[in-house]
Amino acid sequence: MSRLLVIDDEPGIQFSIEQVLAEEDFELLHAETAEQGLRLASEYKPDVILLDIRLGDRSGLELFHDLRRLDPKTLIIFITGHGSADTAIEAMKLGAYDYLVKPLDADQLQQVVSQAMAISRMMHVPTIVEEADRPEDRPDRLIGSGAAMQAVCKQIGRVAPQDVNVLILGESGTGKELVARAIYHHSRRSQAPFLAINCAAIPESLLESELFGHERGAFTGADRRRIGKFEQSHGGTLLLDEIGDMAPGTQAKILRLLQEGSFERLGGSEPITANVRVIAATNQNLDALIEQGRFRKDLYYRLRGVTIILPPLRERTEDIAELAHYFLFRYNRQLGTSVQSIAPEALELLERYSWPGNVRELQSVIREALLASAGPTLLPEFLPPELRRESPMEREPEAKLAPMGEEDWQSLSFFVDNAAACGETDVYRRALQRFDRLVIAAVMRRTGGQQNKAAEILGLSRATLRAKLRQMQMAVEKILAPQDPKN
Predict the structure, then answer these.
(1) Helix, strand or coil, per DSSP, at residue 49
(2) How far is it, in rounded angstroms, from Cα 65 to Cα 72?
């Protein structure tokens, strides 16, 4: 469980914080002195610390340096009176996450602490890119033994140690944040801050302030100086999620920062240096946005030091069983359920579905199915209705897919044209199944049925190849049988 440590010698502040955060899902620790706070931080390793600037026995700023030495990744939020705000700002330049001014505002306290907890988790919980022996013991993994995800993992391994910007492209729900975290954890900046900001979730008028900070009086409501994400993540990594939604004016300022390594806070004139590795992610087509004049081409080239493209789940069906079992183990623990396996018929439905929401949707489906399940096996009837619906062409007779003669390559085009003309849906997935069947059969015939050699040529693991053969009901003997030229 996550932990929040509050170091403040005012009982009223301690009580207020406890009341505001009572419903949050983390453990709350209290310390009234600097010595007690340092001891608790060393013993319990909190994720976030709320630290008063002025303590009775010692300066909070002095204690800040000791806490940073214990764990440089611990996020520290200062609590300050109006008279000591400048001190808190100076501390933020040294690496503090944020500061709150007394009297504390309940909504602001809750928001800042929740954001800090989420960011702390991204910094402390590593994303695993190698295959794990027991999926239930690895909470954050890039899962997939298929060729597509293995290629992504190899890219991460190559780019992580290089101090270059990275652009991650992929549909919503494919795991772009996991990839960004994996790059961070395997980089030379892994002991420095890792911050993230969703460019689509913040109004345009506030995004520049979040990124670059602002001076007091820079705009209406700017009653204090704010340190932005670029300044906070100096020496570390900043994830700009959904960068395709960023306004042109903000794009220009980020371009300048990437070119010159410096920026100015809103309302300020002092150049501020920022040594930050930028990882940008989007589900939009940046090339199309550039053509429409909505995204700067020069910024695009600056961001894509290396580009990683995440495949949608419908293009990596060989990973669905592994992902489903991973979420099964994970949610068994969280929900207190005891489902031990997934029925083959249920797996077939999962692999046949097109997954418009990608991995995030699969995660939700497994969780929903576990809540509806009864018994040790997850059966098809526990899956949501949309996975159990079948179109007239959903289950095609085996005869329509065989024999595997050369004429089937031409019939694939005929199938697509005919299905589209008849108004069928999900044509892509069903055409892909036919294509897989043709390619696997051709390679298996070339290798004389040797699965190890065929898997190597196909770029699949042997386990994935065997699973595909079972899924498509393709027997090696049938594949290798002489083809009748009349068929």
Answers:
(1) strand
(2) 9
CA 194/CA 121 separation, integer angstroms: 10
Buried residues in 179-201 as b, exposed as e (16+ CB within 10 A): bbbbbbbbbebbebbbbbbbbee
3-class state of residue 292 by DSSP = coil
- For residue 54, the cross-strand partners are 59
Q: Among 15-19, 250-254, 465-469, which range has the highest average pLDDT?
A: 250-254
Q: What is the pLDDT of residues 233-247, one digit of tens each?
A: 999 999 999 999 999
DSSP state of 54: B
In tens, the pLDDT along 30-57 reads: 999 999 999 999 999 999 999 998 887 7
242 and 283 in contact (C-beta within 8 Å)?
A: yes
Q: For the segment 291-317, what is each residue's pLDDT rounded down to a tens digit?
A: 999 999 999 999 999 999 999 998 898
Residue 99, beta-bridge partner list: 78
**Strand boundaries in 284-385, DSSP class E:** 306-309, 341-342, 377-378
Distance of alpha carbon 43 from alpha carbon 447, whole angstroms:
60
The rounded distance, in Å, linking the Cα atoms of 320 and 362 is 8
DSSP 188-227: TTTTS-EEEEETTTS-HHHHHHHHH-B-TTSSTT--S-B-
The tokens of 221 are what?
């409501």
What is the DSSP pairing of strand 48-52 with strand 27-31? unpaired
* Whole-angstrom distance, CA of residue 216 vs CA of residue 266: 9
Q: Is the pTM of this model over 0.85?
A: no
CA–CA distance, 21 with 29 (Å, rounded to integer): 12
Residue linked to tokens 């506030």? 206
